[in-house]
Amino acid sequence: MSAPAFLEMSDIxxxxxxxxxxxxxxxxxxxxxxxxxxxxxGAGKSTLMKILTGVYTKxxxxxxxxxxxxxxxxxxxxxxxxxxxxxxxxxxxxxxTVAQNIWLKREPRLSGTPxxxxxxxxxxxxxxxxxxxxxxxxxxxxxxxSVGFMQIVExxxxxxxxxxxxxxxxxxxxxxxxxxxxxxDLVAKLKRSGISIVYISHRxxxxxxxCDRVTVMRDGQTVLTDDCADMTVEQxxxxxxxxxxxxxxxxxxxxxxxxxAPILQVRNLRLPTRVNDVTFDIRPGExxxxxxxxxxxxxxxxxxxxxxxxxxxxxxxxxxxxxxGQFDAIDRGIALVPEDRRKMGLVxxxxxxxxxxxxxxxxxxxxxxxxxxxALKTVNRTIRDLSIKTDxxxxxxxxxxxxxxxxxVIGKWLARDPRLLILDEPTxxxxxxxxxxxxxxxxAMADRxxxxxxxxxxxxxxxxxxxxxxxxxxxxxxxxxxxxxxxxEEELHHAIQGHHIQPSRVVHA
Amino acid sequence: MxxxxxxxxxxxxxxxxFQWRNYVVYIFFVAVLGFFAVTIGDKGFLTMMNLFNIARTxxxxxxxxxxxxxxxxxxxxxxxxxxxxxxAALTGALVMQAGFAWxxxxxxxxxxxxVVGSLNGFFVTVIGIPSFLVTLxxxxxxxxxxxxxxYTNPVxxxxxxxxxxxxxxxxxxxxxxxxxxxxxxxxxxxxLKYTGFGREILATGGNRQAxxxxxxxxxxVKFMVFLLSGAAAALAGLLYSGMMQTARFNxxxxxxxxxxxxxxxxxxxxxxGKGTILGTFAGSLLIGTINNGLIIMGLDVSEQMMVAxxxxxxxxxxxxKPGA
Amino acid sequence: MxxxxxxxxxxxxxxxxFQWRNYVVYIFFVAVLGFFAVTIGDKGFLTMMNLFNIARTxxxxxxxxxxxxxxxxxxxxxxxxxxxxxxAALTGALVMQAGFAWxxxxxxxxxxxxVVGSLNGFFVTVIGIPSFLVTLxxxxxxxxxxxxxxYTNPVxxxxxxxxxxxxxxxxxxxxxxxxxxxxxxxxxxxxLKYTGFGREILATGGNRQAxxxxxxxxxxVKFMVFLLSGAAAALAGLLYSGMMQTARFNxxxxxxxxxxxxxxxxxxxxxxGKGTILGTFAGSLLIGTINNGLIIMGLDVSEQMMVAxxxxxxxxxxxxKPGA
Amino acid sequence: xxxxxxxxxxxxxxxxxxxxxIAAMDSIDGVVVSDGQRGEPGFPAADLKLTDEQIEKxxxxxxxxxxxxxxxxDDWASQQLIGLKETFExxxxxxxxxxxxxxxxxKQIADLETxxxxxxxxxxxxxxxxxxxxxxxxxxEEAGTKVVFIDQAVEGMNPGEDYAAIISSDNLALGMxxxxxxxxxxxxKGDVAAMYFANxxxxxxxxxxxxxxxxxxxxxxxxxxxxVGHNNxxxxxxxxxxxLARYPTLNGMxxxxxxxxxxxxxxxxVAGRTPDDFKIVNENFDQIVALNMAQDGFIAGISSQRPYDxxxxxxxxxxxxxxxxxxxxxxxxPPLKVTRANLPDAxxxxxxxxxxxxxxEALSQ
Lengths: 509, 324, 324, 365
Ligand SMILES: Nc1ncnc2c1ncn2[C@@H]1O[C@H](COP(=O)(O)OP(=O)(O)OP(=O)(O)O)[C@@H](O)[C@H]1O
Ligand SMILES: Nc1ncnc2c1ncn2[C@@H]1O[C@H](COP(=O)(O)OP(=O)(O)OP(=O)(O)O)[C@@H](O)[C@H]1O
Ligand SMILES: [Mg+2]
Ligand SMILES: [Mg+2]
What we know:
Largest sheet of chain A: 6 strands, mixed
Number of strands of chain D: 13
Helix content of chain D: 40-55%
Radius of gyration of chain A: 23 Å
Strand content of chain D: 15-25%
Bound molecules: adenosine-5'-triphosphate, magnesium ion
Helix content of chain A: 25-40%
Largest interface: B-C, 64 and 66 residues
Distance between the termini of chain A: 56 Å
Structural class of chain D: alpha/beta
Oligomer: heterotetramer
């Protein structure tokens, strides 16, 4: 511990109501380091960092920058202190454009006037986005972007602040490899220029590649701070989950699937702009992964199967019948865990219980009345099974930590026992422990005959879950491969980029 | 921690003390009742008759407000309720004048409300026009229609059964208007709180997209809600006409604002997703009680307005923690 | 699949065809103008005087609606504007009657609007009461106050300069009321679109929490917006009184609904986060033009209401893709 | 007698000496009580005449007229419109516009400005307020349109020069008849309340004044114990509820228009009062109060205007003005006191048709 701490947070306490969330947490950050902040869902990582950025006010404890105590009572105080944050739940205004969001409160002015220079703002945004390696029109409203792109806007916004301390709360949760790599390059560049970075992530693989030090939190306390060089993933996971609770997030070969007739047949699907001709099948009990670049149209395919989008041509046949719209799809047992939990997955102002119940109302309704007592059992089981950290089923979804919110979205569909489960970025923000439990649950359900389509930008995840992987490239399924034939993430990565590898292994499904 | 950061970190409509606020309307209702009981209890305020009167005169607003709670919970607004009430009242009265029996008139009246409701629902859910505009236009259109149909003349209702049932009658000593409003409020309460439809309404208003992804047919839900609102407005129209034994084109003017006020006062969020029928009922009674009490106190109209306006604000301010 | 699912895949307030819808109000305005020009152009509709009349009689609504666009964009509502206009008109008239010069009266009148605005702002942002309730209560309170102060009597204004400036005067052949509304709309447009404050309003209404995270002081923004609304209502009050050379307690009754209608018609979302002043201006003119044209057409009152109501709905329906 | 602690309306002024003098008379039949706003004596509407020759001239003129009403929705407005339109039709005058300001001064100004565009030869209109709308009327007059006012004129316009005439009911007399009807039905004694329209409105102000003056001058045993306002006719019942709760032994009520009066009827029914011990009088003779009266309900007396006749008079004065004839500047349509006894005749007088069978049957029961 040679370098002096640039930022010192010591003995930070914070409770919401009577519930303590942070109990004497200490955290330090050196100049120019990348410091990973790890911990299970609900451990208090986001809360700690929101205290640093003035969103929440601590109950007690001190914060020092360069040895000087500092009062970060609101977001502008933090900004003045040179602290910027990429928020997990996105601090973007959906009705404003990308450029307007990035420069909110800091808009460039027409020189000598109080008026905003809109074209300059757009120009600067474009430059920033280019640096991040994406092509987003700065004048599109943020509300119409997919989550991945929103995340990039959020990153661009934080970067544009030229902060001394940059907090990244799961910045890559919706990004795919290419964008993640671009981000890492940027992180390295920032680091070189002396900026200190707090990096929160549940993606184990990336942590050790970029961080200098790691701090692990558990249940509102710091349990470990150490140099990354000395650490292994296993050690971190053990610190996060507690001794003896090691989680395995590894692929099992479930063996060849019984030769059943496909339950889902996608035929020559053509969707506006990105998808040209997509054909594939899924059989009952099979877990199929769909890989592709960001914006390659995976979400659009998922939504088309779910009946929410109309194809330009082609068809989706489920259990022998074409899908006639979303409600037909749901009625017949198709479920979709959407990629944007806040927008599409949850009624944030409703309780955990109401959210879990929503797709299952019909099941618990007798004589027009919802049987709440009976329903509560299911809800409690879901909370237990997915280890959702909540004070109770009546807590508002909004007040849960990011990962726990995601678990509700998955849980509410699992409770319905679907025949085809489509998971679009299912484990965004979910900690490693819960991830492996979720994967285990899904496997168990697949063993009982549920078909699964998984979309993920996290190759590790795709590799861990899928029996079969489809690669979407240039609007077509460029490759179909059996998981057991894919040796490494590297290989898959190449396939996604459009390199046809080892064509001999392509299976005919 | 200062309360400041807590508040400012979430939108104003979703206060954490929402639970507590829900009770404020009841507490305030009791407080207002208590205040009047002490100050003007001896001037007739506390008589059974007067208390019944409060319930009776608020019955129409209550009925409309119950359905309005559904509409607002689903994230929409219905401004056409007042003129729809008049339409239904006129329809019923004209059908009776034409010699039909009152049950037929009632069916026709409710039918007219359903027609307006389904038009609103159509424009909002199928065409996708903001409900504020649709129902504002409808409010004018229907009011114009009401005028046209009757040349602005009142239509009197002679049917004694009808007038007793929907107006000044009593059952077991309880005014029928009170019974109507209690029954409608109860049904509304059960539907909103204990049925799948109620949950779907709240989910639709809370996050329409998420509700859709969960299989809620949000268009159908909204359409139904407008139908219900039309039917409730029509019932209110029948109550107006039963009470006055007459139907007139200008019944229910301003009822939409009164009803919305009752709903919001009761603790329902104007932005949808949260609704409480019992709060609405209390809100409606609170408004009625204030109006009644101030008249008995002998305040003149301008004073009544000032005090009533002030109380509405204070009633809610009261439930807030100081400085929060 | 049907277009049905496509629409519902996005929240109502974030229509991608919003851009197109923004123009609908202009297109429709032109269409309505054209229609009247053809049908009743020879009956005087097209005279300069009549066109000026439309602009003049909508001036108050326009001024109120410009500020209302700010209020609605920030995610709030202000129902107290009508009675505030009357308050300011009375304040100005009484100050002039007391012998002060008109500039002092104007300052006093605007001051009275600012007082109401700051009270609204206080209750909404500091105490945290929904603005619908606060301003509804305020609307009643202020109206009662207006009545009380003047015993409901009108107060006449003798000052010629004042009456010319705020009422029936012309400058370079252009009615002063038209100038007022154009100037206010222009300023509003620039502020909303090209200043940091305007951006902060939109951010606050679009997602209050996100705005706070970005350092926007959303309470201050909302407070300011209510202040502005109070001031604009006061100016509208002065215009009413200048036009009538009199002030009366019942000025501006119903102005709040008219103004909100103009705002929504113009394409601003009732849910906040999106606002267009030019649309509001066009919306206000559209309403005024319809009212004017229908009278010249010789429709009777009930027909006028039906047609005007229908047009409001159709104006927006028109901008929707068929079936979408 | 008027209770000492009574709260008169905000706009109330004490009756003039002349009013009190007339109020003390035994009978006011045939007396024109109200003077014009400028003190001019009233000219009886019945004495207005058009010669055949004049009618021909008007027809030949192909004149146009606009009608600007302050509100619609009661028999007064609709009968008035019928009287106007029928007469204009007979005279070959075309109605080119009709507007309803719905109690909103600003809307009335907008209406008048729009009417101005049409350049009608004649305007018949009831100003909602004599001050606020004055400019708009002046502008129309200056553009060459003849103006006939209903009920009141606006400030700054002079009879004969700027407008032809005001045609009005005798509003003070209306109020006095109400007092008479109430006193008669109560046998000259009892406690009563007055429910007035709270807004400052010229004609209703006068009626309240007439009622009070007559009670003061003539009925020492009628005690007006409370005066309460309503600012919306639909609220009549709510207000009456409050009054009856506070004064449960009240014997009667002056209930302004027919809608609030019917509200009071409901209120009294609910309060368990009967037409034997509670009487209501009002100042609109429309179908609903007439029916209630026929059924021997609470409505014991009505002081009726003659809106149809008033409409005819307005149209007639308008026609004279169009021809450039001299017209009386203040034309008064006398009110009619309606009780159960003269109901059929009164109905025929006002509506020009026989009493509906429904009412005839009710009367005979
Ligand atoms: N405003 C709030 N009110 C009540 N409880 C809250 C609030 N915000 C957070 N919590 C609770 O505090 C705990 C910590 O939440 P936090 O968001 O800091 O977790 P996290 O470590 O970031 O988890 P994740 O990895 O899932 O994002 C959670 O149990 C959460 O439910
Ligand atoms: N370059 C872009 N700029 C703006 N919006 C885009 C862009 N690419 C995609 N979108 C929007 O994002 C939404 C989702 O796109 P798509 O289905 O292609 O996502 P995906 O392949 O699942 O990738 P991801 O969700 O990881 O971004 C679409 O509705 C589209 O409008
Ligand atoms: Mg977090
Ligand atoms: Mg996606």
